[in-house]
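Hi support team,

I've been running sequence recovery on a batch of backbones for a student project. Most finish fine, but this one hangs at about 90% for roughly twenty minutes before it completes. I'm not sure whether the input is malformed or the queue is just slow. I've pasted the structure tokens below so you can try to reproduce it. Let me know if you need the job ID as well.

Thanks,
M.K.
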């Protein structure tokens, strides 16, 4: 089966809410492990890892909070949303599922799960 056929099948089987969320990333690009530039939406559909949109419980978190959380959780930032200089949420990829205690430690919560 071709790569694009696999992506199409995976996308077709998503619920409407996840399809709409993935579409919001269709104009963003990312480099894959082969250093090839691909649409972020395609990367999300191809990934076998855990991908979450995460936000601060308190509305905003310090940049170091985000950095420390990413390092401790061994996450990769795929995208982020800001308002001015405030990070509202980050789309992050993890090899392993997140521990709720770790999220609570940094006062963060999962908004959406994409995989």
């Amino acid at each position: 089966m071709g790569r694009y056929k696999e992506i199409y099948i995976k996308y077709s089987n998503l619920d409407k809410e996840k399809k709409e969320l993935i579409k919001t990333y269709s104009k963003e690009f990312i480099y894959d492990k082969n250093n090839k530039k691909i649409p972020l939406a395609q990367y999300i559909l191809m990934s076998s890892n855990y991908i979450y949109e995460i936000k601060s419980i308190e509305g905003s978190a310090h940049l170091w909070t985000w950095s420390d959380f990413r390092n401790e959780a061994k996450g990769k930032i795929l995208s982020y949303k800001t308002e001015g200089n405030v990070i509202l949420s980050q789309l992050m990829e993890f090899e392993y599922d997140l521990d709720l205690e770790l999220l609570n430690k940094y006062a963060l919560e999962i908004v959406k799960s994409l995989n």
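--
Follow-up from support: It reproduced on our side and the slowdown came from queue contention, not your input. The radius of gyration is 15 Å. No action needed from you.
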